[in-house]
Amino acid sequence: MSAWETIIIDLSDIARKRELLSRLGRLQGLHEIRIKERRRVRSNPQNAWYWGCIVESFVLALEEQWGETVTPADAHEMLRDKFLSVQKTHINEETGVFCVITRRVSSAKLDTREFSEYCEKCRDFLADWFGVIVPDPDPCYYAGEEQGGK
Fold it and tell me: What is the rounded radius of gyration, in angstroms, for the C-alpha atoms of the chain?
């Protein structure tokens, strides 16, 4: 293996698993090895449903109920900031002054499961705050995902 090599391997395949273990067994010296489960990134149908149903419903609700006019991009940022932000508070122990740092996670980097969870939080928010019920995706959408389509 060369420096910074990334390999993708199906660990269900015994022969491929043995090959990997053999390659690892030949390594010498100090190495950093990371193994992470590979997940599918959010799908195009998920993304289209999010923008067409969730974001558009939020745009309309903000305008109709709060008198706020926002673009779909602005509405997406508002939802992303609400549900995909991580805040950390750091305190200077000598002065007692604190600083809050916010890190925003890009929705484009979410896998299909994480994106579904994010969408559900958005749907719950729209229902609770605006009384807006966002419809489920078309059942064919789910069937296509399970069969590897779309």
Answer: 22
